[in-house]
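Possible regression after last week's pipeline update?

I re-ran a chain I had predicted before the update to compare outputs. Posting the input and the new output here so someone can diff against the archived version. Not blocking, just want to make sure nothing changed silently.
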Amino acid sequence: MAHNGELQGCQIKKNPLSRLTGVQDAVTKSDLVFLATPYRENGSILKGISFNGKTLVDCTNPIGMGVSHGLKSVKSGAEEV
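New output (post-update):
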């Protein structure tokens, strides 16, 4: 699991079989990258990350308040990424 912040009390840290690493390190060591983050954070999370031609699968969903489309149905979240 990749994470760029502090994970105090996180259950993943308690599993001896799991390993936390930085986002760039995880991308570098992966063949396929899944983006499963809060949509509004995508820009800051992806800024400065080098994918070097790797496939990025965007699992985010830009839902706004009241379960409306956060991008007003003009374009998809993947087009923003």
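Follow-up from reviewer: compared with the archived run. Residues 11-74 form one domain. Marking as no regression found.
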